[in-house]
Amino acid sequence: MKDDLKELAKQLGNPEGETGIEVANMMNATNIGMTKHAIESLNLYKNDVILELGHGNCGHLPFLMNQAENLKYFGLEISELMKQEAIKSNQNYIENNSAYFRLYNGTEIPFNDKSFDKIFTVNTLYFWQNTDLLLNEISRVLKPNGILALTFADKSFMEKLSFTNFGFNLYSLKDAEELLQKNHFKILKSISQNEKVFSKTNEMVNRTFFTVVVKNLKITF
């Protein structure tokens, strides 16, 4: 049982192989409410350039693209498998040059300064290895006054899940807000949501999650 939970935790952080595809499909289904909430909180406008960290299989891309005209989306993943799955399911957006998928190491963002109007990430916070360095990178590639939406499940919910004992760093809303403020972001709003979902171990649970929307205050030259 312990080994199964360890494997699930590993797959949630970095999906691999046939099991990784199954886990990714499950994540897309169980997290779609959180992902849509993050996207909607960005208040996307025509011609916005958007970056997502940890896109999974990116089954949500059509929803994002319907938010405004002429959007450009860039997705970063640490999982080669998820990059390939996202490419397979989003060929139409790739072919018309509105979506791009790349790998990264989870910390260093391979784009130029001030490249993006909006950035979002859902359920990746638990796996960040160097929070200050990654937030500095997010600030660097985000335009001045650009918007970041950080969506994650509440610590009090996550700590009840058996698999989060293996490699997860859990956050309360206060923890996340303090982390963001320390790293040159101004909090615009923090939104709490509750939903009923099937957990990764196939149990129906009540999940509380937060989306913290912040503005980039750091100026890069």
Descriptive keywords:
7-stranded mixed β-sheet; disordered N terminus; 221 residues; globular; alpha/beta; single chain
Question: What does this molecule look like?
Answer:
- It is a single chain.
- With 221 residues, the chain is an alpha/beta fold.
- Helix content is 37%, strand content 28%.
- It has eight helices and seven strands.
- It has helices at residues 2-13, 17-41, 61-65, 80-89, 91-95, 131-141, 155-158, 173-182, and strands at residues 49-53, 72-77, 99-103, 116-122, 142-153, 185-198, 204-216.
- Strands 3-2-1-4-5-7-6 form a seven-stranded mixed β-sheet.
- The longest helix has 25 residues, at 17-41.
- It is globular and about 40 Å long.
- It starts with a helix and ends in a 5-residue tail after the last strand.
- 42% of the residues are buried.
- Residues 1-13 have low confidence and may be disordered.
